Structure prediction request, 172 residues.
Amino acid sequence: MHPDVALTHLQEAAVLWSVGSGTPAEVIEAACDCLLAGVDEPTLRILAGISAVPSGESDELRRWLGDALAELSLIFFPEGSRAGADEAVRIMARRLLDRTITARALTSWAYGFITWDGAPLAAGLIDLEYAYEIVEAIVHDGQPYPSDAAARVDADVVAEARRLLGGTAEDH
Prediction:
């Protein structure tokens, strides 16, 4: 793995952990990947060496993550921070546009991990999660929604992801 790819993976793992969507083990694994890619800093070694014992890994991660990211010129987002939530939304939007997750997975993730209170940036995605629920559960005027209704919501989610990343509907 190229060092830049490993660092991006670590940054994303740390951000997703900060909003409760990622696990300490994923951050630790990303730190190990950085070492394997040739990135070597003292605190990164400590981070990579955290025991994967679930009861203690979050405490150790909290202790070392900020310093490790700072050594690597990466951004540390404290757990529950609004900036971290905004960045997590952008990470997941990029994953949709890179086709590593589905549109429905993105809206479900935003609804479950971000919420309107956590990051207003995610409001459009959360609204679209409700749109999926309507398409799946409600019959309109006694008739089921057309079969392409979910595909239309998918297209709206892709457009929202592009908007979140500063692009237009024609990008990507």
Q: What stands out?
A: Helices lie at 3-18, 24-36, 42-48, 54-71, 82-97, 103-118, 123-137, 149-164.
